[in-house]
Design goal:
globular, about 45% helix, disordered N terminus, alpha+beta
């Protein structure tokens, strides 16, 4: 929401939306819509996510009362269903995601000190649902949830929207694997440069061994998931691994197995040192130590925490519309809001020396408690876990600070001084 009186000043609003404005300046799908500028639309869509508005009408009323954007309910919803605005949003989202990758890679992630991963891009990928909109048409007598597939870059924490699953006529839903197969292996590279291998850690919904083989051979895409209870494999041999490597703590087996359709994959047995829970990991990646495979899958849980933030912090529990265009735009506004938040946090850390110390202390205590529990129960902790420092979820104090600053359009300097104590301790 651009305040014309303060446009030239350094405000929290300007700084938060600056990456978006930079992306918009490079976009080709822009149009001079004087009644509802593209910049206004993009800010309004992100703002709806950040402010956790319960409905589109409520959000339009909110920004009308602030007097910062001239927009009607008709304009807002018309833009939400515009294919041209969708193409623009895809452009802007890709650009902002690239900014996150450029600035955050190599900045405090858990994989920098693992030399075997230097040639890999790492993603946690999963489906996530919203409830149907009020105007959604029924399928077989019932409104169906809207399902999206998102992907989280585990190095930078940039979020991508990969697909909207769409049920064929007469069917309840489209399964995630069907949607991913429709995308193809090239899309699973998520823009990774040629020569870079790509790993996706996914839950068992991704299982299709023949498709895995195609992605690996044709696209350099590898899958890590957990075995289904009804799996049936043919043993092919032992996959050699270093039992003295401390990063393999918890690994009990590593073998090659064959599937019924003739694909060879890797099956890793693992006992999680903290809880003693057993896991069986499946992967098409044949070179990495098995403990690193297990570690990547553990970090996959980050995307589940972000989904929790989508749902509970930003109230993204229901679809904004019934058209595939509006559903896709909502998903892109969610990823755009997430990525702008990542960039804002990075800006505060690098330029202002501000990190969420209270959340990091809590996280460090959680990690230390888990390590001590493993040792107490005479299990060797995995040394990779000790390097986990990145915070996945933001504190409510930080979100409330951002919402207030965007609403009143406070100066950057004033906003920084307001947030500094909030990042040091929880309010009493």
């Amino acid at each position: 929401m651009i305040n014309k009186d303060k446009e030239s000043q350094s405000t929290l609003h300007n700084q938060f939306y600056k990456p978006l404005e930079m992306a918009l300046g490079c976009a080709i799908h822009t149009r001079d819509c004087t009644d509802y500028l593209d910049s206004m639309y993009l800010c309004a869509g992100v703002g709806r996510v950040i402010e956790a508005a319960k409905s589109g009408r409520a959000w339009v009323q909110h920004i009308q009362m602030l007097g910062t954007i001239t927009v009607s309910v008709r304009n807002f919803f018309s833009a939400l269903n515009s294919k041209r605005r969708l193409r623009l949003l895809i452009e802007v989202d890709q650009d902002v995601r690239a900014q996150v990758n450029q600035r955050l890679k190599g900045h405090g992630n858990a994989f920098d000190d693992i030399p075997e991963l230097s040639g890999f891009e790492l993603y946690a990928t999963d489906g996530h649902s919203h409830g149907a909109s009020e105007h959604e048409e029924k399928i077989l007598g019932k409104k169906r949830a809207v399902n999206h597939i998102y992907s989280l870059n585990l190095r930078s924490h940039a979020m991508s929207h990969l697909a909207l699953t769409e049920a064929a006529k007469g069917k309840k839903k489209e399964h995630e694997i069907a949607a991913i197969k429709r995308l193809g292996g090239r899309a699973l590279r998520v823009g990774a440069p040629k020569g870079t291998k790509v790993i996706h850690a996914y839950d068992p919904a991704i299982i299709d061994y023949r498709e895995w083989y195609k992605w690996k051979r044709g696209n350099g895409v590898y899958i890590i998931t957990v075995e289904k209870s009804n799996s049936a494999f043919m043993p092919l041999g032992i996959h050699e691994w270093d039992t003295t490597d401390k990063r393999n703590a918890g690994v009990i087996s590593d073998e090659l197995v064959g599937t019924s359709n003739g694909v060879s994959i890797r099956l890793i047995g693992y006992i999680y040192p903290v809880t003693g829970t057993g896991y069986s990991f499946l992967t098409t990646e044949m070179t990495l130590p098995p403990g690193i495979i297990a570690f990547i899958y553990k970090i996959r849980w980050n995307i589940e925490k972000i989904y929790d933030e989508f749902k509970n912090t930003f109230s993204q529990q229901q679809a904004w519309g019934k058209s595939s265009t509006s559903k896709s735009q909502q998903a892109l506004f969610i990823t755009l809001a997430h990525n702008l938040l990542v960039l804002l946090e990075h800006r505060l850390e690098v330029d202002e020396g501000i990190i969420d110390e209270k959340v990091r202390r809590k996280h460090a205590k959680y990690i230390a408690t888990g390590i001590e529990k493993a040792r107490t129960e005479q299990r060797t902790p995995n040394i990779l876990v000790e390097k986990l420092s990145r915070i996945t979820q933001r504190s409510q104090q930080f979100i409330r600070w951002l919402r207030l600053g965007l609403t009143i359009n406070s100066s950057w300097e004033y906003s920084v001084e307001l947030v500094r104590p909030l990042m040091q301790k929880y309010m009493l």
